[in-house]
Structure formats: structure tokens, C-alpha cells
Specification:
Two copies of one chain form a homodimer. Chain A has helices spanning about 10-20, 25-30, 55-60, 80-85, 105-115, 125-140, 155-165, 180-190, 195-205, 215, 220-230, 250-260, 320-335, and strands spanning about 1-5, 35-40, 45, 75, 90-95, 120, 145, 170-175, 240-245, 265-275, 275-290, 300-305, 315. By secondary structure, chain A is of the alpha/beta class. Chain A folds into two domains: about 1-155 and about 320-335, Rossmann fold, CATH 3.40.50; about 165-315, Dihydrodipicolinate Reductase, domain 2, CATH 3.30.360.10. In chain A, strands 4-3-2-1-5-6-7 form a seven-stranded mixed sheet, sandwiched between helices. In chain A, strands 9-11-10-8-12-13 form a six-stranded mixed sheet. The first copy, chain A, is globular. Chains A and B meet through helix 7, strand 13 and helix 13 of A and helix 7, strand 13 and helix 13 of B.
Chain lengths: ~350, ~350
């Protein structure tokens, strides 16, 4: 299986390392992966025989600009060369997300699918803008469009919904989909501190970003909820269809009151069916200690699906970080290798 | 896809009803199922054009012996006829479990796999006795051997471990795998009653059997733990390798003490790696309220996998009952249809 990586940030580098470390294990499963392109915005490399993991690892210890790597059979490359050579089986797309245009990812993905290459993307942009269209394009070209890490990373929200719930209708979705806000709420509970202080702790630990808006105002949760709803409940909703409230107005007083009653505040993204209309909300909710998402702790995430025939399914986990994110891309690659059809 | 059902008890009947109710939905997915055999120990029926769901449903409302059904194109049939006709794609095996010989299921399954028919089984016997052998036989004949409902019914313990954790090594397993004992423990907690009274309630509600030994002595949990360990951690353990303790000696006093401390007793099946040896235990453990399995309530089940690269995954759900069990067989059928390779 010949693959290309496009986008070589934290997750890209972790994925590369995973390919290196798991090489033998993957061979045992019959999966012989040749990584032949690594592309970035400022250029990249191409080795038709497969880039030498060990040698490139040594190179990267001393230098960060991969486009300068020329050892072994590696040549300079860009996406134009990949199009001309037409020699990959799978494109792994990990460029930065743009939620408005989804570019340049959209161009890469469309080219790959239309030309019979499987695509695995870690990028929410194209999924938000054009999931149905891209999935159809994949089906028409008998390849797979895999998005297993776009709504919760290692937590198998997408694959869990598509595969573990196969044959049943998902009737509602409820999830703690953002690790940062979940961490902040837990800090307030456990350390008895204000929202502002808990946010600062999270920023200090590198869990929250300097501008935490996307997380704390609920937009990251909303984005993931939207992907899950459209993919698993066959909807075509947009961000504007979601009533979004973040956690910024929560007081220590209310957190303490909940704890005294044995309850917890959680930021919940929810898709529910009200009179045959799907209602979407992101808001703080008080969970009692019987709720299956009550114990989604720290930076973990969790999701609960209700269904017509398979009952309720709750999935908890999805440690944050580049390694689990990379591992979830590898998971999609293996599921493709095992023949599973995501796209029909 | 032409299928045969062998074994037509509660789950078999529920599966038949599911095929009937989901017919249109399955056609939309491109899955055109023709049920051509329903076989029981005392005989069965065969219709090469596909048994008429609606008509047979009406028949079953008045009569329970399916071997007497002769309407439409249905003829009398047995497994010998199925062998002679050689006209199915998938065998769905739901005969009663025999944990010693696994017969007659083993004979049916071996014939089917060796003759290029996919097999889905709801039967623990063959999985316990010969999973590796049967999986290999399936791989040699390029068909699938699916066991997705043999360790927790609707709870996707097997598929979750095989598919959602693909590419990572599962390093430990921890599970609440028996709904009956979980219900009994919860009754003691909530109603402040003795083990004996809670067991009686469970028996009265039809949750526990008249002879509850298999559940309350931990053997049902042990059986499921064994399947999960062998399948997901690539082991060849036997029941004797598990240290098994049930819940029969629990006192109301100890349950109350745990509750006062905000904790709960749960019957936990566990596979852990101690110095490169897998240790297997089934025993009562005290979980604190941070544990992800703390909120596995009532008849639900839950399992937690730790892994090298995908972090922890906890899966909770798996409502008991014949409909979810049947739905989990349908799930395996759909996953086969979507091309996934369980057996290699």
C-alpha cells in the first residue's frame, strides 16, 4: 500500500513515528505500507521505493525542514508531482483546518477521490463543508473517505457510530466532545477555584490555548456534534442550526452546589429528535451520578448514542494528544486494508 | 445474500422479526437478504425463493412448530438438505450452547466455513473451544467467522476491540460482563436488602434463572472474559486459567459501607499483564466514583480496554434481551456485507 502524507505538523510527525514503530506489527497483519510522499506547504519529499523511516528520523532530530531531506532515494516533491506520478493508493490529509473554504484540503481530497485514491483526513473543514458530496465521490470511484479522527481523535465516535451501531438507527446523540472544557470544569470542582483560575491552569499546562474561545465558547463541541449528526443521523445541518452556549459564565458557587448534590456540570453537545425535527444544542448540563457520561474525567471525551434496536451505547476515552490522534489515522488505514466500505 | 438460520429460539425469532422490520432499510443499503432456511433440531423449512416474512409471521402467531409451515414455496428441510443444496452465502448459527463439545454447532460451523460460507454465531461453545482453529479455517476459505454477540450481546465488546482498537495492542481488559449480577448488586445498594432477597427479586423479574449458579458464581463473566482475552489479546487461555469468585458471599453490611464511602461493589472480569504473563480474575471489586465502569447500571454491561497507542476505551451499554442480541447478529451481517475482514 503506497501512501502520501500531506501536512506534517504534530499529528503528521506522530503518524510517521507510528508507522516506524509499528512496521513489523503491520507486516504481520499483511499490511506492507510504503510511505512515498511527505508534503508540506513549503515543499516536500518523494521516494518511490518508500521513505527510509530510520534515516529520516535521524535527520529530523537535527533539522525541522523536511523539504531539505535528500538522502536515500528522496527527491524534492509537491502536490503537482504527486498528481503527475499518480502512484499512491491512499492520501492522508493532515493540513490545517479552514472551516470556511476547507482549502487547500478540499482540492487535495477531491483530486484523490476522483482519481481512485482512498482518503483519510484529520481535517474538520472538508467534512463540515462537503461530507455527503465527498462520500458520494468516494463511492463513485470505489474508494473510501475516512474521517474517523475528525470528531474526537482516538475516541471512536465516527467508527463506533457507523460500525458498532450498524443496522440500527441512531435516534439521539449526547456527548462530552471537548477535553479542554471538561478539564476546566473538573479543576473548578476539585480545587474549588473560579472559572478564570481554572482556565489559567489549563493554559499554563498547555491544555487550553492562549485564545481559548473555540473551546470555552462551545464551538469546538458544536463542530464535532455537527459532524456526528450529519454523518450518523444522515442530516445536512449547519453550524447555524446549533444553539451554542459555552462555559464562560459558570460560577464556582453553582459548581459547588452541584457537587453537594452529588452532581456535576458538563458541557454537553446534543442532537435529539423532537417531533421528527433534529434539535441541536451545546450547553452546560447538570448530570446526576447515574448518567453514563458522569465519569468522563479530565481531558477525556465521551459520547452516548441511543438507537432503535441496539439499545444505548456509551463510548468513553480518547486521550488527547498527537499520538492517539495519529493512532486513529492508522486505525482508519487498517480498516481500509481489512476491506471495510465506509462509502457506498 | 442467501442466508440460513439454524436454531430458532428467542434470539432466532427476534432476528427473523428484525429481518422483516428492517427489510426496506437494508435494501437501501444495497443488502438484499433472502432467508432460505430456518432449521431447528426437530426439522425446519426451506424456500429457495426466500421465506415470506409476513406469511410466516402470521403462521407463528397461531403455531409454534415451524417445521409444519408449508405455505408459499416452503418445503421440509434439515441440515443434510442444506449441505446437498449448497446454496447459502451465510450461516447464522444460534443453537443452544454446549461448553464441553460445542456440538452440534461445531459440525455446522466447520462444514459452512470449509465450504466457503460466512458464519455468524451467537454460540459461546465453538468460540471457547476452537476460536483460533475456526478463524483460520475461515481465512483459508476467504470467508468471515463472526462472533460479535458472544461476549456481551449488543455491547460491541468484540467488534469494539477488533475494529475500534485496530492498530493498537490491547494491554488489559476490565469488564462488567454479566447483567444479572450487576442488577443484584444494585438492588442491594438501592433497596438496602440482603443478597438472598435481591436474588429473589431478580428471579421474580425473570432476570436471574431458577438455578442462578452460572451467573452468581461468576462463570458467565469468566466465559466472556476468556473469549475477549483469547480474541483480543491473542491468547490461548482456558477456563481453568481464571481465578473465579462470584458474588454469593457478599453481605449487605459491606455493600452499605462501600456506598457510605461513595463506592460500589462490582463483579469485575479482568485480564492484566503481570511481568509478561496474562493474569485472569473474576471477583468483586470496589470501584470509586471516578472509575469509568462505576455507572454501569442495572442490567447493562461495560468493558474497558487499555492500549499502547489509542489510550483507554470504555464501552458501556448492551441492554439485555432478545432484540438487542438479534440486532448484534444483524450488525455482523452488515459488517460482512460492507466487506470487512474479521478473519485473515
Amino acid at each position: 500500500m503506497k501512501i502520501a502524507i500531506i501536512g506534517f505538523g504534530g499529528v503528521g510527525k506522530a503518524f510517521f513515528q507510528l508507522l516506524r514503530k509499528k512496521k513489523k506489527e503491520l507486516m504481520l497483519e499483511g499490511l506492507d505500507i510504503k510511505l512515498i510522499y511527505i508534503l508540506k506547504s513549503n515543499g516536500g519529499i518523494y521516494d518511490p521505493e518508500g521513505i527510509d523511516y530510520e534515516d529520516l528520523t535521524v535527520f529530523l532530530e537535527n533539522q525541522s525542514d523536511i523539504s531539505q531531506y535528500r538522502r536515500g532515494g528522496s527527491k524534492k516533491a509537491n502536490f503537482q508531482l504527486l498528481i503527475e506520478n499518480h502512484d499512491i493508493d491512499v492520501l492522508i490529509e493532515m493540513t490545517p483546518t479552514n472551516k470556511k473554504t476547507a482549502e487547500p484540503a478540499m482540492t487535495y481530497i477531491k483530486w484523490a477521490l476522483a482519481n481512485g485514491k482512498h482518503v483519510i483526513t484529520a481535517n474538520k473543514g472538508p467534512v463540515l463543508l462537503a461530507y455527503k458530496q465527498l462520500n458520494l465521490l468516494a463511492a463513485q470511484n470505489n474508494v473510501q473517505f475516512c474521517i474517523g479522527c475528525t470528531a474526537g481523535g482516538a475516541l471512536p465516535t465516527i467508527n463506533g457510530g457507523l460500525i458498532d451501531m450498524a443496522g440500527s438507527q441512531i435516534t439521539s446523540i449526547e456527548g462530552i466532545l471537548n477535553g479542554t472544557t471538561n478539564f476546566i470544569l473538573q479543576e473548578m470542582e476539585e480545587k474549588n477555584i473560579s472559572y478564570e483560575l481554572a482556565l489559567k491552569t489549563a493554559q499554563h499546562l498547555g491544555i487550553a490555548e492562549t485564545d481559548p474561545t473555540l473551546d470555552v465558547e462551545g464551538w469546538d463541541t458544536a463542530t464535532k456534534l455537527l459532524i456526528l449528526t450529519n454523518v450518523l443521523m444522515n442530516q445536512e445541518k449547519e453550524l447555524e442550526d446549533i444553539k451554542v452556549e459555552g462555559i464562560t459564565r459558570i460560577t464556582l458557587e453553582s459548581v459547588k452546589k452541584a457537587i453537594e448534590e452529588g452532581k456535576k456540570y458538563k458541557l454537553i453537545g446534543k442532537a435529539t429528535n423532537k417531533n421528527n425535527k433534529i434539535e441541536l444544542t451545546v450547553q452546560l448540563e447538570i448530570l446526576d451520578n447515574h448518567h453514563p457520561l458522569f465519569n468522563v474525567n479530565g481531558k477525556n471525551k465521551g459520547v452516548r448514542y441511543a438507537s432503535d434496536t441496539l439499545g444505548d451505547l456509551t463510548i468513553i476515552g480518547g486521550a488527547s494528544g498527537v499520538i492517539p490522534a495519529a493512532a486513529s489515522i492508522l486505525r482508519d488505514l487498517i480498516i481500509i486494508h481489512r476491506g471495510y466500505h465506509f462509502s457506498r
